[in-house]
């Protein structure tokens, strides 16, 4: 690599192959042949470069005569100049030699910068300000979006905080109701009989869950189930309704039997005779069941 290529190895160059009337964008270090020694590195001043100067350029393994029109470190910007040259919106002689701020690696004073800007054609002067404006508009849009999102996040945080507070209140009420329920449950459990039994008639207590399982389709079935709940099948099999003389079958307890009969009469609006007949039928069935065992 030549001294020139080493010094400007990161630069791109806009090349005009004038014989073919074609434009190309290459890296400076790639388009210079390795044996270029006609220039000294320190004399290779890009800013004072003459675009009409002819150089032999390496392209596709061969040397072609060409002009270096422009140097720069931004490939996209030089590409945009090629597009303008292609659609003939600018001429070759209007292309500025330098399109980057630090190619010469030497500071410029304000007079030189102003002179270069004034020497550019009007359409090239508008190229960069438009991009900067567009970029600024994008930045402004991004800032506005960020500001809106930040505001929305703050609003959501406040809403989340309020939801958490409401959740804590509901949780507190739930815990209070749960404690009250447990207290009532313990109280009912301590009362025992009142919670597990139900009263029928004047004084007979029966288990609530068994009482609720009795059949209600007719008087005889309801009496049969209720007698099982109050007395049990063993007592029914060994007892009679009023007792039999000389027999070993005692009568059913009078108070409980009267409570069963009065409850059934009231529940089904039935007469005493119907209920008494249902009691006899149940006792007969209990006796027969015991006899067959």
From TrEMBL:
PROSITE patterns: BEN. Residues 157-293 form the BEN domain. The keyword Coiled coil applies. One of its GO terms (molecular function) is DNA binding. Gene3D superfamilies: BEN domain. Keywords: Coiled coil. Residues 146-187 form a coiled coil. It comes from the Eukaryota. This is BEN domain-containing protein. It comes from Araneus ventricosus. The lineage of its organism: Eukaryota, Metazoa, Ecdysozoa, Arthropoda, Chelicerata.
